[in-house]
Structures are given as C-alpha cells and as structure tokens.
Amino acid sequence: MKRNLMLAAMAVVALGTADAAWAKPSAAIVAAVADKGRPAEDTARDADRKPAEMLEFAGVKPGQTVGDFLPGGGYFTRIFAKAVGPKGAVYAIISEGQAANKDKPPAVNAIAADANYGNVKVVAANFQSLALPTPADVIWTSQNYHDLHLTRLNLDVAAVNKAVFNALKPGGYYIVLDHAAPAGTPVDAANTLHRIDPAIVKTELEAAGFKLVGESSVLRNPKDDFTKNVFDPAVRGHTDQFIYKFQRPK
Predict the structure, then answer these.
(1) Strand, coil or helix: 64
(2) Is 206 helix (H, G, I), strand (E, B) or coil?
(3) d(CA 119, CA 166)
(4) Residues of the chain above pLDDT 70, percent
(5) Cα(142)–Cα(58) distance, integer angstroms
C-alpha cells in the first residue's frame, strides 16, 4: 500500500514539474520563432501564445515529422516547418470539407506553396480514419480538440482519437492545447462556449490507449471566469488554457 502511494506521489510530482523540464527552448525552436517569414499578425500574438515554450514542451526537434491537426491560419505550421528543418516534415491536417471549399481555400495551402516552407504538405483527411503519408513523431492540436465534439460535425470522437493514436510512431506524442471549462461542464459546451473540461480530454485519450506524460501551466489564466465564449473580446486571446502531453506507448 505504501509503495503504491509513493509511486502515485512520484507521478503527480513528475506531471507537476513538467514546466520546469521544458523551460528552456532549444536553439532550433528559438530560431524558428524568429523566422522573418512569419506574418506580423502572427508575431504580434507570440507574447500570448508563447510558441517557443509550447514547442519545447512538445519535444519538437530537427528531422522530425509533425502533424499540425486543424492548423487554422497556420500560426504554428510555419514555426513547425522551421523547427524540424529541411530533413523534417510537417503535415497540415485539414478536413475533406475544408479541402473541397473552393470559395475559401485553407490558409495552409498558401504556406505549403511557399518555397520557404517546402517541407509542409497539406493532408485532407477523414478524421475518423486519419492516414498520414508517414507516421508522425508529434501530432499537435491547438484550441481545436473541443471542436471534435461540435454537434454539427457529428464525429465519432473515440474513432478520431484512435486514428490519431495509429498515425503516431510508437513512443510519439499527441499534444492537446485547449480552452478550459470548469470541472463537470458537459461536453456540449463546445457548441456554445467553445471550451472543454480538461478531465474529459484525459478520459477520452486514455481510453484510446494514450498515456498522459506531461502537463504545462504556461497558458493558465486564473482571471478567466469561464462564463464567456472564447471569441468574446473580453477574453479572446486570454482564456484559461490547458496543455497536455500524451504518449503512444512504445
């Protein structure tokens, strides 16, 4: 009994000190964030989004393959591309519906077409049967996990999570960064507040076979009262956000 309590305590300490373990970004990551090709509107958000700390926590290194799952405007896509370098690859994973929208082409299409980011490839995927050209070292999703629960998308989230698990190399990492909702908040808050209870994320990903191996509090904000939609100007860019690091066991 004492041994079990000691092991549990050690696990809590290991997770609780995750920030310290990844506190100093590598030279490759610092250079990637300093990339002069990044748009001014992206660099203006760096103080709030802390990309160098995020990539270091994720363990992104030169030569790796990174899946940027639902990349939006490509804020992290460009940084990933420079961080993994010419020997690495970045898969910008969008939905088949996004790829088919000719009236509003995904922003990452322009990034992939830019010679400065020649290691970026746009992958249009059915999220429930995600297939990447090659297995990834890291799959990253930022402020999007809650969207998988949107009623209008009608996704089998368990299938999506298993597909992400299978798209990773054994030992690979899945990083989930999202807007927090209070403990006990039902999952349908994704439709209204665009938030999710972190406990739901843990439960769902552990059910898919992942192991939680790290947590960062770099983007936590105790001033967020959780009542506002994340797009409300009063909190936009300053919500309380959790960051979890899950691993596909080796």
Answers:
(1) coil
(2) helix
(3) 22
(4) 91
(5) 12
